[in-house]
């Protein structure tokens, strides 16, 4: 097999090509806020381009971001689907149906708790302005959410924001629940209210951006994330989501640069960031750097789900000759850090 054939094989079998969305589309895909749990879930709905749910003859396949299969389920009569008990990592959803072109969407379960984003003591500052009733309802809502009772969680979060409308954490969690219930306009309104009430509550920016990325509203996501970055220029989570937005919009150079900023800011990033970078380098024919990122992935997660496939692809690259001098161009790294 020639080197060009090997490259095409690798791109097809390991690096997920961007598919053109046609009559079939994934919509309303959201993940819950990160809590103490070790697992998470994904829910969503499949619709056509007119917004009509497709309820028969459609299946949704879940893979890791690197292409390893996880599960496949049929949609219900309203086009809805769910995947439960998932490890917190990056995934790719693919909707398949006879007579439709496949539709894909990336979903990232690396939602960070507010405490990791906001300044120490900020939670206490927010809490000091909130009535006891609002705090009590909010805590009840969080407990309901953690046990999967979305109607109860929504009712409690709604009571919390009625008691204190500018309770940013409650507005943010309410937005997440509304997204799960496919009330997209209300979801967006609650996220915007959280940011309007407390521009320093950074978790709202992250979750709002993930919602916008999931809806393929990439320019709006970029604007929200840049607004958050002005308040926390060293928060790696913003760059991670910016990279996702740029990649979704097809601006792969910017996506690569922001993933590199994540590496500069976070000494222990999600292992999947290396496969994302490898994908981007492959798009630029920078096979040596793609290979190095695969090595980094194996160092970070040697027994990960994608490790066998990564090792096989690395062996194919070695055998094909694409790593020889002159077979791979180099893509310069941007200056380290967000101010570079």
Describe it.
The chain is α+β, with helices and mostly antiparallel strands and 340 residues long. It has three domains: 3-14 and 250-320, Alpha Horseshoe (Serine Threonine Protein Phosphatase 5, Tetratricopeptide repeat); 24-108, Immunoglobulin-like; 114-217, Tetratricopeptide repeat domain (Serine Threonine Protein Phosphatase 5, Tetratricopeptide repeat, Alpha Horseshoe). Helices cover 51% and strands 15% of the residues. The protein is built from 14 helices and seven strands. The protein has helices spanning 3-13, 114-117, 122-128, 132-146, 150-163, 168-180, 184-197, 202-214, 218-231, 236-249, 252-265, 272-283, 287-300, 307-320, and strands at 24-30, 39-48, 58-64, 69-74, 80-87, 90-97, 103-108. The strands form two sheets. The protein has a four-stranded antiparallel β-sheet, with no helix packed on it. The protein is globular and about 65 Å long. The relative contact order is 0.11.
């Amino acid at each position: 097999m020639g080197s060009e054939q090997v490259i095409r094989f690798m791109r097809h079998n390991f690096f997920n090509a961007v598919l053109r969305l046609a009559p079939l589309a994934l919509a309303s895909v959201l993940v819950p806020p990160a809590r103490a749990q070790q697992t998470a879930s994904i829910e969503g709905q499949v619709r056509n381009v007119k917004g009509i749910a497709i309820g028969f003859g459609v299946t949704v396949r879940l893979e890791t971001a690197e292409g390893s299969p996880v599960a496949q389920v049929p949609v219900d009569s309203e086009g809805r689907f769910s995947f439960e008990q998932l490890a917190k990592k990056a995934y790719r959803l693919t909707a398949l149906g006879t007579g439709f072109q496949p539709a894909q969407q990336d979903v990232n379960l690396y939602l960070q708790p507010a405490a990791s984003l906001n300044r120490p003591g900020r939670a206490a500052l927010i809490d000091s302005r909130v009535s006891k009733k609002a705090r009590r309802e909010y805590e009840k809502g969080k407990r309901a959410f953690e046990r999967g009772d979305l109607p109860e969680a929504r009712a409690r979060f709604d009571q919390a924001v009625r008691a204190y409308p500018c309770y940013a954490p409650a507005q943010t969690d309410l937005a997440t629940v509304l997204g799960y219930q496919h009330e997209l306009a209300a979801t967006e309104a609650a996220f915007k209210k959280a940011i309007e009430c407390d521009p320093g509550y950074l978790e709202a920016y992250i979750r709002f951006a993930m919602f916008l990325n999931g809806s393929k509203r990439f320019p709006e996501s970029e604007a929200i994330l840049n607004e958050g970055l002005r308040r926390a220029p060293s928060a790696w989570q913003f760059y991670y989501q910016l990279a996702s937005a740029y990649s979704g919009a097809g601006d792969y150079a910017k996506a690569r640069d922001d993933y590199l900023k994540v590496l500069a800011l976070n000494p222990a990033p999600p292992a999947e960031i290396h496969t994302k970078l490898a994908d981007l380098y492959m798009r630029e024919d920078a096979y040596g750097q793609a290979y190095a990122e695969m090595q980094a992935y194996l160092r970070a997660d040697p027994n990960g789900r994608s490790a066998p496939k990564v090792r096989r692809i690395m062996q194919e690259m070695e055998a094909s000759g694409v790593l020889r001098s002159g077979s791979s161009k180099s893509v310069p790294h941007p200056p380290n850090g967000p101010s570079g």
